[in-house]
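Quick one:
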Amino acid sequence: MWMREDIKKRIIEKVETVVERIEFIDGHLSDGIVWDRILRKAIYKEFQEAVDAASDVCAMVRRWRNSSAKDNYSNIDFLMRYPGI
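Output:
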């Protein structure tokens, strides 16, 4: 199935966001997080942004498959039922 270039570009941007956020978390996750509230909140925010971007990708792929995007959980369930999308 053909995908519009603008949608493909947006999905790539979202995936890059996920990778960047996870790399930040990986680079800063340490035992110090227990004592450093600012670091803990930064890690939480990066994780939240990674999950949001991944959820956006799920919704975009679902719409691309001509199925209306719903909530995050149903979008993920939809994609899990159709491996190879």
